[in-house]
Amino acid sequence: MGITRGFGVDIGGSGVKGGLVDLEAGALDGERMRIPTPQPSTPEAVAEVVAEIVEKFQWDGPVGVTLPCVVKHGVALSAANVDKGWIGFDAQRLFAERLKRRPEDVVVMNDADAAGIAEMSFGAGVGKNGTVVLLTFGTGIGSAVFLDGKLVPNTEFGHLQVDGHDAETRAAASVKEEKGLSWEEWAPRVTRYVNVLEDLIWPDLVIAGGGVSKKAHKWLPLLEVRTEVVAAALKNDAGIVGAAWASAHGVRP
Q: Can you tell me where the transmembrane regions are (predicted)?
């Protein structure tokens, strides 16, 4: 019998979420726990919150952790919407020490990549070949790219330059909220962003994730793009599920 349960923690700019995951169903196994991201969101402060969540569930197995950063070999190489102290920081070692785990029992990866793994394994991307892009709309915009089902890790398409601006400063879900934009006002910003992405990599499918995917029916029909765009099936739990799956299977992008 294979591994049937795992644990994932998804670190975002506004909140840290974690919970047990049913790895056969690709869904949370019970309720998740959410704690506001500490400010400043230094590595040490965030590690304390991650430990609090893991200990709350009394989980003693492998743990998958996502960061809104480029992550290679467990080291964060960028910092989007978290403290710049993450840049160059060995996140895998930090979490392993704080969680009292062996380094090999902790997987740290980019948050959108984790969400993409979940969608390709259990959600809207199952069985999809060609170029599939997951875009997570939240505090910023995360991206995960898959070519014939294989992850191309650490793409940072949320930072594409669109009309002279960093894309996520115009089209992230947080911008909609901060500016009080209606769906009709926000959707053209997303359209323009996706149009630029389409001209660069010509995707076969775009999966829209993040918190706003819960209300996809209000804005996906407003997009004017040539690529099929569908809502993420796992909604805002995809990062947790993907992180848990990666840690259970020893996947290290």
A: none
Which two structure tokens, joined as six digits, stand for 182?
A: 């209606």
pTM for the predicted model, two decimal places:
0.95
State how far the Cα of 35 lies from the Cα of 16, in Å rounded to an integer.
5
Cβ atoms of residues 166 and 195 within 8 Å: no
CATH topology of domain 5-111: Nucleotidyltransferase; domain 5 (3.30.420)
Range list for CATH 3.30.420.40 in the chain:
5-111, 124-232
* pLDDT for 253: 76
Model confidence over 166-186: pLDDT tens digits?
999 999 999 999 999 999 999
Structure confidence by residue, pLDDT tens digits, 124-141? 999 999 999 999 999 899
CA gap 77, 127 in Å, rounded: 32
Amino acid letter, 217: H
Listing from the earlier edge strand, what are the strands of the sheet with 150-152?
150-152, 141-147, 131-137, 205-209, 229-231
Tokens standing for 32? 């998740």
Burial class (CB within 10 angstroms; exposed 0-12, middle 13-18, buried 19+) of 131? middle
Return the closest-CA partner of residue 33 out of 4, 5, 64, 54: 54
The CATH number of 124-232 is 3.30.420.40
Number of neighbours of residue 160 by Cβ within 10 angstroms: 17
Over residues 87-136, the pLDDT tens digits come to 999 999 999 999 999 999 999 999 999 999 999 999 999 999 999 999 99
